[in-house]
Design brief:
- The chain is built from 2 helices and no strands.
- It has about 30 residues and is mainly alpha-helical.
- It has one domain.
Length: about 30
């Protein structure tokens, strides 16, 4: 999960939301 590492740098909120959206789409499919 490189997203978590990137989130540590900046925009953790945006990336967290983006990750949640991706996870939601994957589960939705």
């Amino acid at each position: 999960m490189r997203i978590a590492v990137f989130a540590s740098g900046r925009g953790s909120n945006l990336l967290a939301i983006h990750d949640a959206v991706i996870s939601g789409k994957l589960e939705g499919v």
